[in-house]
Amino acid sequence: MVNRIDRWAPAAGLISPPFYLALIIVLGALEPGFSHRTSLMSLLGGVGGILGLAFNLGVVVTGVCLIVFAAGLRQQLPPGWRDNAATLLLTIGGSGLIGAGAFACDQGCRNILIDPDLVGRLHIVSSLSAGMGSGVALFFYWAAMSRSEQWRSFVKPTLTAAVLANLPGVVLWFTIFADLRLRSVEGYLQRMGFIVVLLWIFFAANRMRRTSE
151-154: long-range contacts (C-beta < 8 A, 24 or more apart)? Predict the structure, then answer.
């Protein structure tokens, strides 16, 4: 099992970032009126037909990849509460993506933004779990890597990524819950933090691949 995880985890980490970015770029381009600057990504899941289905399935696949990556990276870090917390949080992040894809928006995300129902609320909880879990996990990876000679050179980039990944999300959700929404840049705020997480995963997975060769 460990050998399988060691083999599949780097692949999951290398594939998921470009896959997810291509997913939102292509489907966003195909949806009339969709703006990466102002539109939340969840809106793509409420598109009717095959495009909405493709987005939601893609989000689920990305979540599965994050969980596999977290399991593999755990094998390379010193055992302890820091590593356990990081693995748990990134697994929560991946599970949140799976939930966000399973409990998707309806058309225009009315079940979230206008007339919230159970599915919409579950989508919000899942999305929060995805963003917060994956973002906060980087702080614990930073702490765990500080104790590893193998990952010592990755410590500063991880701390930088942790800060950059969490700031946009804090601003986004604070303004939403405080009814001070920054609608003109909400799309950017939502994407920025998660893109940082994905970039970190990509480079960490590449390092895992090199060390396992």
Answer: 151/76, 151/77, 151/207, 154/203, 154/204, 154/207
